[in-house]
Amino acid sequence: MKKRIHISEIADYVDQSVELKGWLYNIRSSGKLMFPELRDGTGIIQGVVVKSAVPEKVWEDFSKLTQESSVIVNGTITKHPKKENVFELQVSDLQIIQIAEPYPITPKEHGIEFLADRRHLWIRSQKQASILRVRSEIVQAIRDYFYNNGFTLFDPPIFTPNACEGTSTLFSTDYFDLGKAYLSQSGQLYAEAGALALGKVYTFGPTFRAENSMTRRHITEFWMMEPEMAYYDIDDNMDLIEDFLEYVVQRVIKKMKPELEILGRDISKLEKVKKPFPRITYTQAVEILHRKDIPLIRKTSNGEEQIRPFPWGEDFGAPHEEAIVEDFDKPVMVHRWPSEAKAFYMKRDPNDTKIALGVDVLAPEGFGEIIGGSQREDNIELLISRIKEHELPMEEFEWYLDLRRYGSVPHSGFGMGLERMVSWICNLEHIRESIPFPRRPNRIRP
Ligand code: 4AD
Ligand code: MG
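^ thats the input. predicted complex w/ 4AD below
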Protein backbone atom coordinates (compact mmCIF):
# COMPACT_ATOMS: atom_id res chain seq x y z
CA MET A 1 0.00 0.00 0.00
CA LYS A 2 1.37 3.44 -0.91
CA LYS A 3 0.89 6.46 1.26
CA ARG A 4 1.16 10.10 0.13
CA ILE A 5 3.73 11.86 2.32
CA HIS A 6 5.91 14.97 2.32
CA ILE A 7 9.69 14.93 2.19
CA SER A 8 9.83 16.58 5.64
CA GLU A 9 8.34 13.35 7.06
CA ILE A 10 10.54 10.75 5.34
CA ALA A 11 12.39 9.73 8.51
CA ASP A 12 9.13 8.22 9.78
CA TYR A 13 8.62 6.06 6.68
CA VAL A 14 11.84 4.06 6.34
CA ASP A 15 11.25 0.81 4.43
CA GLN A 16 7.71 1.83 3.59
CA SER A 17 6.12 2.33 0.23
CA VAL A 18 5.19 5.99 -0.32
CA GLU A 19 4.03 8.51 -2.90
CA LEU A 20 5.69 11.92 -3.29
CA LYS A 21 4.18 14.78 -5.28
CA GLY A 22 6.56 17.45 -6.43
CA TRP A 23 9.04 18.65 -9.02
CA LEU A 24 12.30 17.42 -10.50
CA TYR A 25 15.11 19.52 -9.00
CA ASN A 26 17.97 17.87 -10.81
CA ILE A 27 18.85 14.53 -12.40
CA ARG A 28 22.08 12.59 -12.94
CA SER A 29 22.40 9.31 -14.73
CA SER A 30 25.13 6.72 -14.97
CA GLY A 31 24.36 3.91 -17.38
CA LYS A 32 21.74 1.74 -15.83
CA LEU A 33 21.06 4.04 -12.88
CA MET A 34 19.40 7.44 -12.63
CA PHE A 35 19.45 9.75 -9.61
CA PRO A 36 16.58 12.21 -9.80
CA GLU A 37 16.46 14.80 -7.02
CA LEU A 38 12.89 15.59 -6.12
CA ARG A 39 11.62 18.59 -4.23
CA ASP A 40 8.12 19.05 -2.86
CA GLY A 41 8.39 22.36 -1.01
CA THR A 42 9.20 20.72 2.31
CA GLY A 43 12.60 19.38 1.31
CA ILE A 44 14.65 17.51 -1.26
CA ILE A 45 15.21 13.76 -1.58
CA GLN A 46 17.42 11.82 -3.92
CA GLY A 47 15.67 9.07 -5.83
CA VAL A 48 17.36 5.97 -7.18
CA VAL A 49 16.00 4.49 -10.42
CA VAL A 50 17.44 1.07 -11.33
CA LYS A 51 16.83 0.28 -14.99
CA SER A 52 16.42 -3.43 -14.40
CA ALA A 53 13.99 -2.89 -11.49
CA VAL A 54 11.40 -0.60 -13.10
CA PRO A 55 9.06 -1.03 -16.10
CA GLU A 56 10.65 0.16 -19.35
CA LYS A 57 8.14 3.03 -19.61
CA VAL A 58 9.17 4.40 -16.21
CA TRP A 59 12.83 4.41 -17.28
CA GLU A 60 11.99 6.15 -20.56
CA ASP A 61 9.77 8.71 -18.85
CA PHE A 62 12.57 9.61 -16.44
CA SER A 63 14.89 10.22 -19.42
CA LYS A 64 12.38 12.76 -20.76
CA LEU A 65 12.21 14.83 -17.58
CA THR A 66 13.52 18.37 -17.60
CA GLN A 67 14.37 20.50 -14.57
CA GLU A 68 11.18 21.61 -12.72
CA SER A 69 8.92 19.10 -14.49
CA SER A 70 6.05 18.25 -12.16
CA VAL A 71 5.84 14.60 -11.18
CA ILE A 72 4.30 12.08 -8.82
CA VAL A 73 6.81 9.40 -7.83
CA ASN A 74 6.27 6.15 -5.95
CA GLY A 75 8.89 4.14 -4.18
CA THR A 76 10.33 2.91 -0.91
CA ILE A 77 12.18 5.13 1.56
CA THR A 78 15.60 3.77 2.57
CA LYS A 79 18.39 5.02 4.79
CA HIS A 80 21.45 6.29 2.94
CA PRO A 81 24.08 3.53 3.09
CA LYS A 82 26.79 5.88 4.39
CA LYS A 83 25.33 9.21 5.51
CA GLU A 84 23.61 9.67 8.85
CA ASN A 85 20.08 11.16 8.71
CA VAL A 86 19.97 11.06 4.91
CA PHE A 87 17.27 9.11 3.12
CA GLU A 88 16.68 7.98 -0.43
CA LEU A 89 13.70 6.93 -2.49
CA GLN A 90 14.03 3.61 -4.32
CA VAL A 91 11.78 4.48 -7.23
CA SER A 92 9.14 2.06 -8.50
CA ASP A 93 6.80 4.28 -10.51
CA LEU A 94 6.51 7.72 -12.10
CA GLN A 95 3.57 9.79 -13.27
CA ILE A 96 4.41 12.93 -15.27
CA ILE A 97 2.10 15.89 -14.65
CA GLN A 98 3.90 18.36 -16.91
CA ILE A 99 7.21 18.41 -18.75
CA ALA A 100 8.66 21.83 -17.97
CA GLU A 101 9.92 24.10 -20.73
CA PRO A 102 13.69 24.75 -20.58
CA TYR A 103 14.08 26.26 -17.11
CA PRO A 104 15.87 29.61 -16.99
CA ILE A 105 17.56 29.08 -13.60
CA THR A 106 20.17 26.36 -13.86
CA PRO A 107 22.73 25.19 -11.30
CA LYS A 108 25.36 27.53 -12.85
CA GLU A 109 25.94 31.01 -11.42
CA HIS A 110 23.49 33.71 -12.51
CA GLY A 111 23.77 37.46 -12.02
CA ILE A 112 21.70 38.91 -9.20
CA GLU A 113 19.48 41.04 -11.49
CA PHE A 114 18.77 37.99 -13.66
CA LEU A 115 17.59 36.13 -10.55
CA ALA A 116 15.67 39.12 -9.17
CA ASP A 117 13.77 39.41 -12.49
CA ARG A 118 12.78 35.76 -12.02
CA ARG A 119 12.03 35.95 -8.32
CA HIS A 120 8.80 33.97 -8.86
CA LEU A 121 11.00 31.01 -9.92
CA TRP A 122 14.10 31.78 -7.86
CA ILE A 123 12.16 31.09 -4.62
CA ARG A 124 12.08 27.41 -5.65
CA SER A 125 15.82 27.08 -5.13
CA GLN A 126 16.93 25.36 -1.98
CA LYS A 127 18.57 28.38 -0.40
CA GLN A 128 15.70 30.78 -1.08
CA ALA A 129 13.10 28.27 0.09
CA SER A 130 15.09 27.74 3.31
CA ILE A 131 15.18 31.48 3.99
CA LEU A 132 11.42 31.71 3.52
CA ARG A 133 10.87 28.80 5.89
CA VAL A 134 13.04 30.45 8.53
CA ARG A 135 11.09 33.68 8.01
CA SER A 136 7.84 31.81 8.63
CA GLU A 137 9.25 30.27 11.82
CA ILE A 138 10.44 33.68 13.06
CA VAL A 139 6.92 35.06 12.56
CA GLN A 140 5.40 32.12 14.39
CA ALA A 141 7.89 32.52 17.26
CA ILE A 142 7.03 36.22 17.53
CA ARG A 143 3.31 35.53 17.63
CA ASP A 144 3.72 32.75 20.19
CA TYR A 145 5.93 34.92 22.39
CA PHE A 146 3.42 37.74 22.60
CA TYR A 147 0.43 35.44 22.89
CA ASN A 148 2.05 33.54 25.75
CA ASN A 149 3.01 36.76 27.53
CA GLY A 150 -0.44 38.32 27.70
CA PHE A 151 -0.25 40.70 24.72
CA THR A 152 -3.26 41.38 22.50
CA LEU A 153 -2.75 41.53 18.73
CA PHE A 154 -3.80 45.00 17.59
CA ASP A 155 -3.98 45.72 13.85
CA PRO A 156 -3.37 49.37 12.94
CA PRO A 157 -4.56 50.91 9.65
CA ILE A 158 -2.27 51.16 6.62
CA PHE A 159 -3.97 54.22 5.09
CA THR A 160 -3.16 57.07 7.43
CA PRO A 161 -3.63 60.85 7.28
CA ASN A 162 -0.26 61.74 8.82
CA ALA A 163 3.38 60.89 9.39
CA CYS A 164 4.75 58.95 12.33
CA GLU A 165 8.47 58.73 11.58
CA GLY A 166 8.93 62.06 9.75
CA THR A 167 7.35 63.42 6.57
CA SER A 168 10.25 62.85 4.18
CA THR A 169 9.61 59.15 3.66
CA LEU A 170 5.86 59.00 3.00
CA PHE A 171 4.19 57.32 0.05
CA SER A 172 0.91 59.02 -0.78
CA THR A 173 -2.22 58.14 -2.68
CA ASP A 174 -5.52 59.88 -3.43
CA TYR A 175 -8.25 59.09 -0.95
CA PHE A 176 -11.73 59.92 -2.31
CA ASP A 177 -12.92 63.36 -1.20
CA LEU A 178 -10.69 63.37 1.86
CA GLY A 179 -7.52 64.40 0.07
CA LYS A 180 -4.27 62.51 0.43
CA ALA A 181 -3.75 59.31 2.36
CA TYR A 182 -0.29 58.09 3.28
CA LEU A 183 0.89 54.50 3.55
CA SER A 184 1.78 53.77 7.16
CA GLN A 185 5.45 54.07 8.15
CA SER A 186 4.73 52.52 11.53
CA GLY A 187 1.67 51.46 13.51
CA GLN A 188 3.08 52.92 16.69
CA LEU A 189 0.76 55.87 17.29
CA TYR A 190 -2.25 53.58 16.98
CA ALA A 191 -0.54 50.96 19.14
CA GLU A 192 -0.24 53.61 21.86
CA ALA A 193 -4.02 54.00 21.80
CA GLY A 194 -4.20 50.19 21.98
CA ALA A 195 -1.89 50.01 25.00
CA LEU A 196 -4.00 52.52 26.93
CA ALA A 197 -7.09 50.47 26.09
CA LEU A 198 -5.74 46.91 26.43
CA GLY A 199 -2.57 47.22 28.53
CA LYS A 200 -0.10 45.29 26.37
CA VAL A 201 -0.57 45.07 22.61
CA TYR A 202 1.50 44.31 19.54
CA THR A 203 1.03 45.13 15.87
CA PHE A 204 2.41 43.10 12.99
CA GLY A 205 2.00 44.21 9.42
CA PRO A 206 3.45 45.86 6.35
CA THR A 207 4.94 49.34 6.64
CA PHE A 208 6.27 51.64 3.94
CA ARG A 209 9.20 54.03 3.62
CA ALA A 210 9.79 56.14 0.53
CA GLU A 211 13.53 56.27 1.15
CA ASN A 212 15.50 56.37 -2.04
CA SER A 213 18.26 54.30 -0.48
CA MET A 214 19.75 51.35 -2.30
CA THR A 215 21.57 49.85 0.68
CA ARG A 216 21.79 46.19 1.70
CA ARG A 217 19.50 46.94 4.63
CA HIS A 218 16.63 48.96 3.16
CA ILE A 219 13.47 48.01 1.32
CA THR A 220 10.50 50.30 0.71
CA GLU A 221 7.87 47.83 1.92
CA PHE A 222 8.75 45.82 5.02
CA TRP A 223 7.01 44.05 7.86
CA MET A 224 7.23 45.57 11.28
CA MET A 225 6.24 44.13 14.63
CA GLU A 226 5.56 46.75 17.29
CA PRO A 227 4.67 45.98 20.91
CA GLU A 228 3.42 48.83 23.10
CA MET A 229 2.95 48.60 26.87
CA ALA A 230 1.22 50.84 29.41
CA TYR A 231 3.17 51.52 32.63
CA TYR A 232 6.51 50.46 31.07
CA ASP A 233 9.52 52.76 31.28
CA ILE A 234 12.65 52.59 29.13
CA ASP A 235 14.26 49.96 31.38
CA ASP A 236 11.16 47.74 31.33
CA ASN A 237 11.23 48.15 27.57
CA MET A 238 14.84 46.94 27.35
CA ASP A 239 14.08 43.99 29.65
CA LEU A 240 11.30 42.97 27.28
CA ILE A 241 13.48 43.36 24.17
CA GLU A 242 16.11 41.08 25.69
CA ASP A 243 13.67 38.40 26.74
CA PHE A 244 11.86 38.54 23.39
CA LEU A 245 15.00 38.36 21.23
CA GLU A 246 16.44 35.48 23.23
CA TYR A 247 13.19 33.54 22.83
CA VAL A 248 12.90 34.07 19.08
CA VAL A 249 16.53 33.30 18.26
CA GLN A 250 16.77 30.22 20.49
CA ARG A 251 13.51 28.82 19.17
CA VAL A 252 14.50 29.36 15.54
CA ILE A 253 17.85 27.63 15.93
CA LYS A 254 16.15 24.71 17.66
CA LYS A 255 13.45 24.26 15.01
CA MET A 256 15.29 25.31 11.85
CA LYS A 257 18.64 23.46 12.08
CA PRO A 258 18.43 21.85 8.61
CA GLU A 259 17.52 25.15 6.95
CA LEU A 260 20.25 27.07 8.79
CA GLU A 261 22.73 24.38 7.73
CA ILE A 262 21.70 24.74 4.08
CA LEU A 263 22.31 28.48 4.49
CA GLY A 264 25.74 27.80 5.96
CA ARG A 265 24.82 29.69 9.14
CA ASP A 266 27.28 29.43 12.02
CA ILE A 267 24.73 28.43 14.67
CA SER A 268 27.24 28.73 17.52
CA LYS A 269 27.11 32.52 17.04
CA LEU A 270 23.32 32.52 17.46
CA GLU A 271 23.52 30.23 20.48
CA LYS A 272 25.23 33.08 22.34
CA VAL A 273 22.13 35.27 22.06
CA LYS A 274 21.13 34.86 25.70
CA LYS A 275 20.22 37.45 28.34
CA PRO A 276 21.62 39.81 29.53
CA PHE A 277 22.62 41.90 26.50
CA PRO A 278 25.09 44.77 26.77
CA ARG A 279 23.42 48.15 27.37
CA ILE A 280 25.44 51.22 26.46
CA THR A 281 24.40 54.84 26.12
CA TYR A 282 24.67 56.70 22.85
CA THR A 283 27.45 58.76 24.42
CA GLN A 284 29.41 55.58 25.27
CA ALA A 285 28.86 54.36 21.70
CA VAL A 286 30.33 57.61 20.39
CA GLU A 287 33.34 57.07 22.68
CA ILE A 288 33.86 53.67 21.02
CA LEU A 289 33.89 55.43 17.62
CA HIS A 290 36.43 57.94 18.92
CA ARG A 291 38.64 55.17 20.29
CA LYS A 292 38.49 53.33 16.96
CA ASP A 293 38.85 56.57 15.00
CA ILE A 294 35.75 56.00 12.85
CA PRO A 295 34.80 59.28 11.16
CA LEU A 296 31.41 60.61 10.10
CA ILE A 297 31.22 60.56 6.32
CA ARG A 298 29.28 63.41 4.77
CA LYS A 299 28.39 63.64 1.09
CA THR A 300 29.48 66.91 -0.45
CA SER A 301 29.19 68.40 -3.94
CA ASN A 302 32.67 67.12 -4.78
CA GLY A 303 32.53 63.68 -3.23
CA GLU A 304 32.85 62.82 0.44
CA GLU A 305 34.12 64.55 3.49
CA GLN A 306 35.40 62.69 6.57
CA ILE A 307 34.69 64.37 9.90
CA ARG A 308 36.86 63.44 12.89
CA PRO A 309 36.18 62.85 15.69
CA PHE A 310 32.64 61.57 15.12
CA PRO A 311 30.41 64.51 16.23
CA TRP A 312 28.09 63.85 19.17
CA GLY A 313 24.48 64.20 17.99
CA GLU A 314 24.79 62.53 14.59
CA ASP A 315 22.99 59.31 13.71
CA PHE A 316 25.04 56.19 13.04
CA GLY A 317 25.57 54.67 9.61
CA ALA A 318 26.58 51.12 8.73
CA PRO A 319 30.34 51.54 9.46
CA HIS A 320 29.54 53.01 12.89
CA GLU A 321 27.12 50.26 13.80
CA GLU A 322 29.69 47.66 12.75
CA ALA A 323 32.42 49.25 14.85
CA ILE A 324 30.14 49.51 17.90
CA VAL A 325 29.10 45.83 17.91
CA GLU A 326 32.49 44.44 16.87
CA ASP A 327 33.63 43.68 20.42
CA PHE A 328 30.36 42.04 21.51
CA ASP A 329 28.87 38.68 20.60
CA LYS A 330 25.29 39.58 21.47
CA PRO A 331 22.84 42.23 20.32
CA VAL A 332 23.87 45.62 21.72
CA MET A 333 21.24 47.98 23.15
CA VAL A 334 22.23 51.60 22.59
CA HIS A 335 20.03 53.85 24.70
CA ARG A 336 19.60 57.54 25.59
CA TRP A 337 19.97 59.27 22.23
CA PRO A 338 20.39 62.93 21.31
CA SER A 339 16.79 64.10 21.07
CA GLU A 340 17.55 66.07 17.89
CA ALA A 341 18.28 62.85 16.00
CA LYS A 342 15.09 61.11 17.06
CA ALA A 343 11.33 61.16 16.44
CA PHE A 344 8.95 63.71 18.02
CA TYR A 345 7.20 61.23 20.32
CA MET A 346 10.21 60.12 22.36
CA LYS A 347 10.24 61.16 26.00
CA ARG A 348 13.03 63.49 27.09
CA ASP A 349 15.29 62.31 29.85
CA PRO A 350 14.06 64.19 32.97
CA ASN A 351 17.73 64.67 33.99
CA ASP A 352 18.94 65.98 30.63
CA THR A 353 16.65 67.55 28.01
CA LYS A 354 19.21 67.02 25.23
CA ILE A 355 18.59 63.28 25.62
CA ALA A 356 15.62 61.21 24.43
CA LEU A 357 14.74 57.93 26.13
CA GLY A 358 15.17 55.93 22.95
CA VAL A 359 16.84 52.57 22.40
CA ASP A 360 18.21 51.01 19.22
CA VAL A 361 19.23 47.38 19.15
CA LEU A 362 22.20 46.60 16.92
CA ALA A 363 22.54 42.99 15.81
CA PRO A 364 25.92 41.31 16.24
CA GLU A 365 28.17 40.44 13.26
CA GLY A 366 27.51 43.85 11.70
CA PHE A 367 23.87 43.30 10.71
CA GLY A 368 22.92 46.75 11.94
CA GLU A 369 19.79 48.09 13.60
CA ILE A 370 17.07 45.48 14.01
CA ILE A 371 14.96 47.29 16.62
CA GLY A 372 14.16 50.91 17.41
CA GLY A 373 12.08 51.84 20.42
CA SER A 374 11.55 54.32 23.23
CA GLN A 375 9.62 55.50 26.22
CA ARG A 376 6.95 57.86 24.87
CA GLU A 377 6.42 61.48 25.81
CA ASP A 378 3.45 61.46 28.19
CA ASN A 379 3.45 65.19 28.99
CA ILE A 380 0.98 66.98 26.73
CA GLU A 381 2.70 70.40 26.76
CA LEU A 382 6.04 68.94 25.74
CA LEU A 383 4.37 66.83 23.07
CA ILE A 384 2.56 69.83 21.59
CA SER A 385 5.75 71.85 21.39
CA ARG A 386 7.52 68.89 19.74
CA ILE A 387 4.77 68.54 17.11
CA LYS A 388 5.22 72.23 16.33
CA GLU A 389 9.02 71.95 16.15
CA HIS A 390 8.72 69.06 13.71
CA GLU A 391 6.19 71.09 11.67
CA LEU A 392 3.60 68.34 11.83
CA PRO A 393 -0.09 69.22 11.27
CA MET A 394 -1.48 69.67 14.79
CA GLU A 395 -5.10 68.88 13.83
CA GLU A 396 -4.10 65.38 12.70
CA PHE A 397 -2.58 64.70 16.12
CA GLU A 398 -5.57 65.76 18.23
CA TRP A 399 -6.67 62.16 18.75
CA TYR A 400 -3.10 61.24 19.72
CA LEU A 401 -3.01 64.11 22.22
CA ASP A 402 -6.25 62.75 23.74
CA LEU A 403 -4.15 59.81 24.95
CA ARG A 404 -2.35 62.37 27.16
CA ARG A 405 -5.58 64.15 28.17
CA TYR A 406 -7.45 61.12 29.43
CA GLY A 407 -5.46 59.00 31.83
CA SER A 408 -1.94 59.61 30.54
CA VAL A 409 0.58 57.07 31.85
CA PRO A 410 4.24 56.30 31.27
CA HIS A 411 4.38 53.89 28.35
CA SER A 412 6.93 52.39 26.01
CA GLY A 413 7.31 50.19 22.98
CA PHE A 414 9.55 49.24 20.12
CA GLY A 415 9.52 48.22 16.47
CA MET A 416 11.34 45.25 15.00
CA GLY A 417 11.95 45.04 11.26
CA LEU A 418 11.17 41.48 10.25
CA GLU A 419 13.43 41.48 7.20
CA ARG A 420 16.39 42.78 9.23
CA MET A 421 15.78 39.96 11.69
CA VAL A 422 15.61 37.36 8.89
CA SER A 423 18.80 38.77 7.32
CA TRP A 424 20.66 38.46 10.60
CA ILE A 425 19.43 34.99 11.55
CA CYS A 426 19.99 33.63 8.02
CA ASN A 427 23.29 35.52 7.60
CA LEU A 428 22.18 37.20 4.36
CA GLU A 429 24.41 39.51 2.41
CA HIS A 430 21.39 41.52 1.24
CA ILE A 431 17.90 42.19 2.61
CA ARG A 432 16.30 41.51 -0.81
CA GLU A 433 16.44 37.75 -0.12
CA SER A 434 14.57 38.02 3.20
CA ILE A 435 11.07 38.62 1.75
CA PRO A 436 9.24 36.78 -1.04
CA PHE A 437 8.93 39.78 -3.38
CA PRO A 438 11.16 42.68 -2.29
CA ARG A 439 10.23 46.26 -3.14
CA ARG A 440 13.13 48.66 -3.66
CA PRO A 441 13.37 52.07 -5.31
CA ASN A 442 14.37 50.44 -8.61
CA ARG A 443 12.18 47.34 -8.37
CA ILE A 444 8.45 46.77 -8.24
CA ARG A 445 8.38 43.60 -10.44
CA PRO A 446 7.63 40.74 -10.35
O1 4AD B 1 13.56 52.71 13.93
P1 4AD B 1 12.22 52.79 13.25
O2 4AD B 1 12.03 53.83 12.22
O3 4AD B 1 11.17 52.93 14.44
C1 4AD B 1 9.80 53.08 14.31
O4 4AD B 1 9.19 53.03 13.27
C2 4AD B 1 9.11 53.16 15.63
N1 4AD B 1 7.79 53.74 15.39
C3 4AD B 1 9.05 51.81 16.26
C4 4AD B 1 8.37 51.81 17.60
O5 4AD B 1 8.93 52.32 18.56
N2 4AD B 1 7.19 51.26 17.69
O6 4AD B 1 11.90 51.36 12.60
C5 4AD B 1 11.88 50.20 13.39
C6 4AD B 1 12.62 49.09 12.71
C7 4AD B 1 14.10 49.36 12.47
O7 4AD B 1 14.86 49.09 13.62
C8 4AD B 1 14.41 48.39 11.35
O8 4AD B 1 14.59 47.08 11.87
C9 4AD B 1 13.13 48.40 10.55
O9 4AD B 1 12.10 48.85 11.40
N3 4AD B 1 13.23 49.26 9.38
C10 4AD B 1 13.43 48.84 8.12
N4 4AD B 1 13.60 47.60 7.63
C11 4AD B 1 13.78 47.48 6.30
N5 4AD B 1 13.80 48.51 5.44
C12 4AD B 1 13.63 49.79 5.88
N6 4AD B 1 13.63 50.81 5.02
C13 4AD B 1 13.43 49.98 7.28
N7 4AD B 1 13.24 51.07 8.07
C14 4AD B 1 13.10 50.62 9.33
MG1 MG C 1 15.44 53.49 13.85
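The chain has two domains: 3-98, 119-434.
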